[in-house]
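retry 2 of 3: previous attempt timed out while embedding 5'-O-[(L-methionyl)-sulphamoyl]adenosine. Reduced batch size to 1 and resubmitted. Inputs unchanged:
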Amino acid sequence: MKFYITTPIYYANGVPHIGHSYTTIASDIVARWKRLNNFDVFFLTGTDEHGAKIAAAAKVQNRTPQNLCDEVSAKFKEVWKLLNISYTEFIRTTEQKHIISVKKIVKILFEKGFIFKKKYEGSYCLECEKFYSQKDLDENNNCPFHKTSLVIQSEENYFFKLSFFQIKLLERISNPSHKEYIKIQPEERKNEIIGKLRLGLEDISFSRTALEWGIPLPFDKEQTVYVWVDALVNYITGVGYMINDAKFRKYWPADIHLMAKDILWFHSVVWPAILMAVDLPLPRRICSHGFFTLNGDKISKSLGNVISPGELVDKYGVDAARYLIITLIPFGPDGNISWRELTLKYNTDLANNLGNLVSRTIKMAEKYFNFQVLQNTINLHLAKRVAAILKENFADSIDNMQFNKAAEVLQDAITLINKQIEIDSPWKLFKVDIKKLSFCIDSYLQAICVIAMYLLPFMPVSSEKIWNMMGAVGNISEVAKKYFSNMIIPENGFSAPQTKLNSMEILFPRIEK
Ligand code: MSP
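retry 2 succeeded.
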């Protein structure tokens, strides 16, 4: 079975920060989880490179927009590499294949009569790349989102007949039994969209004049395609639209478009309308999360409080940075983060709970058995308890984007093993019953292997290290794929007692301040 997931394509005028990282790591976790569950996954991310915003940023820096985009997209790729993001493809909207695909869509829309020309004057927000009508402005007549002043733009340009799709969209968004149902999450934001849709839809600007940094309209070279239309089309270009039909038919429609709330409207209204207009299938699910604030303030370049993913990785390591970004706030509402809370969670979940479990188990295996637990002392009792807890709650949490809940379930399972060690008090068995001691330690090893498999989507490198430290047999991802397909723990467990365990590496050293 195929599974296609996307992140937004990020504007190529800034630096990747913790907000972009949140969306991308969330998508990566889902992609990795689906791969472990034997789906054929396509995971798309990339950069949005056309439009007035990019042109303006390049002008300020006295360089060409292309030159700026080359640098910024390389920066995004670098950060995704650092964060171990397993994307299938990184798309750039300045790529030729994308330009071909946008022109094709625009041509079809024009030929089908969904685009018309009109003179228009309105307030435009450069940050949102969007016209606002008077009723949507804030009390100071500023952008309701950025609180910045808007520019009055008067142009004769093309419009897309969005209003034509009002009823069709309402049906597809609000009726779960519709065959083209689009599931929008969370529920509250879906209801907001439905509420707005009920009030009626205005046609939207489809092109810009006098903006050179964009894709020219095939039927009017004086105008360029509106950047949002250009951007949304990336989702079909990415899986081969116009280039590789078999690939396109295999992966489209998207199973999940993931983003923050700021751009949910474009994804759940404008994008499906364009797709309906050109007779392409609609995305199945659109998930939006909230906004990060840092110590209570909005994260922004102007406030200078952008946390860079690099800083997080320097402080906590890659896997811990991934884990912390994604679990500190629930997916959905806005949430505040602070260095203090990040470090607290690091110490609690990773240094004290998981790290401690791994290191004490290995230390016991070393001290009592010189890393080699006795043969014929396989004990799957604890592994089965851990597996049952995880089976019950983990998959649903990931499927519902409740990453912090999935992490809680994992932490509960880790705590259970730690508690069992206290109950068994294996250190008391050493001089008394070596065979029983070996059974105890084997039970921890096997249970930790189960934890390691579930940790894979969050912490791909550390899980493999834990797996190897436990002396588990085979490649963790391959074994996990097999395990997740039947949920049966092999009779001989994962970690063969006769194999020598690997000596310990401290994965999450405690951070004192
Ligand atoms: N280029 C458009 C998207 C086009 S998709 C067809 C765009 N780019 S953006 O660079 O502004 O990225 C917006 C996305 O970045 C948000 O939807 C979210 O995924 C992520 N975030 C940026 N700042 C964020 C926070 N402070 N908090 C959480 N996510 C944030 O919009």
